[in-house]
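Workshop exercise sheet. Pairs work together: one partner reads the sequence aloud, the other fills in the structure field after running the prediction. Swap roles for the next sheet.
Pair: D.N. / O.F.
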Amino acid sequence: MSGAGKAGASEVRLTKSIFIRLTAFALTISIFPIFLISSLLLWRMERMTERELNQSFQWLVSEHKGNVEDRLGQYVSSLRYAARNTTILDALSDGGGNAYLLGGTVSSEVFKTMPMENHREVRGCIVYTDGGVRAYGTCVTAFTEIVEREWRARGWNGGEDWFVDATWDGRSTLAIVMPMQVVDVNAFTSRRVGLIRLDLYLDELFAPAPGGDREYQVALFDGEGSALYASDPALIPALEDWMAAAEPPQTLDSFTVLREKLDGYGLPLLYLFNTNELAVQKKALKQVIYPAAMAIALLIVLGAYWFFRRFSRRVDALLEKFRIAGTGDLSPTAPVGGEDEIALLDRRFGQMLQEMDALNRKSYAQQTAIREAKYRNLQLQINPHFLYNTLETISAIGAMHGAFQVCDLCEKLGDIFRYSLGKNEGKYTAVANELRQTRNYIFIQQVRYRFEVFYSVDVNADEVYMLRFLLQPIVENAVLHGLAKKDGPGTLEVYVGRRGGDLEIRISDDGAGMPPEQLETLRRRLREDTDQRENNANIGVWNISQRIRLSYGEPYGVEVQSRPGQGSTFTLLLPMITKGMIANDEIQAADRGRRGADPEGTAREN
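Structure field:
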């Protein structure tokens, strides 16, 4: 076999190897992630379903408990109103006449006051006469020693109280007792003439709401952990054991248990929700997600096989062109076809053969043009020393003519220009440098605007460091938007100190200030991550806020206070950074975000 034939066979084997490898690679990076993502998605949806179920459980518990407490509150209010019913109190305080007529009057008033009709949870409401008064009726009887002993045995304390009782047929009731007192406004005394008791069926009061989307069970316990009521009595033994546990679990058999306490009574309430619904929903999710993942994987396998098979054939055609060109035959051949990188490579290969000679001829001309461009670029560069020398020349001319203010302006402007170039400066600089350049800027602005400046520095400005170019934009905003709009001279105050363990810089002016709407708009924009302004108003303040937040984190930034006609205060909150914490123009990792640095020494300047 010839050398060309061997090379062609080798290239064919190579393309077949590429086809196999690409297919295997595509299957590896697609099928496994599909099943991984499907599993993660299933897990996520199961957690979401579980969370939604728990939220619905909490909502049902809150609704049921709220309804019970509302109804109890209404009954207690009605009972208290009945206990203060003047007709009943007058009848009981007189105590004379026929006991049955008196009982009828009291019973009639009780029926008028207490909501008992169409209230299934109400067993009854009875007034017990005291102090020897006799009255008998549907809702009135005498308070005897036997009744008192029975009540006290169940927890009654002698006054306004409640206790749990039971009817003759074993149904538990909640008995609410209130004393009925007659007040002598002349003697400032009161005496008890009776008691009124309201009995409520626990099984009616605490029964779960019927017809809901999710069924649940309710159980009520006393302070000792004994069941007073359970919507499913078969669960009482297991629930009493659950209450007796030192650390009861969140589940009981196939139920999720939520514990609440009845406000005002201190009785524990247990709500049990069947967890089978969660298992059913998880199973339904698996039946949807896994078949969908398998179908997607099958489509990927078929698509990868078709695509890479076609790809390998086009690579074979391109290799054949390379082989022919290697023999010295540069004649045009049929294009590979397509609009992808292989077709582009084929076209570029043909153009390369045609343009190779032209590129060689143009090479010298291009090198000459490059050298000319570099020469012109050097000519266009301006030496910064030329600008410094020019400012010094202007300053010297001003001194010759006695315009010493021009000399000062040139000197300050030169300092600002050197600081702005900052070839020997890094990202951070000492607070003293920032204050020095701020003074230069303020000096220039004082030539145009009339205002006084006061400085107060309570830190060692040479040892504490901050980001460069933070103060000048804030001062510029205070001068141009505050003091420049003020009638007459103004005042600018610059304070540098501590706020806890952080560095605080305040720039205050007594200029025009801002109306509340403009102040709120500025504060809202300072909290935004992108600049949403349609104009350039306060763009410097926003940039400063963004630089601080991006460098130090969300707790730091710019705070603004302002009142119309009284001026504005811009406060910069920065971390306390010392020179020793700076390494390679960044805060060292061990000290990053450290708050509470205490550099030694303080300075104050006024």
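Discussion prompt: The longest helix spans residues 3-83. What would you look at next?
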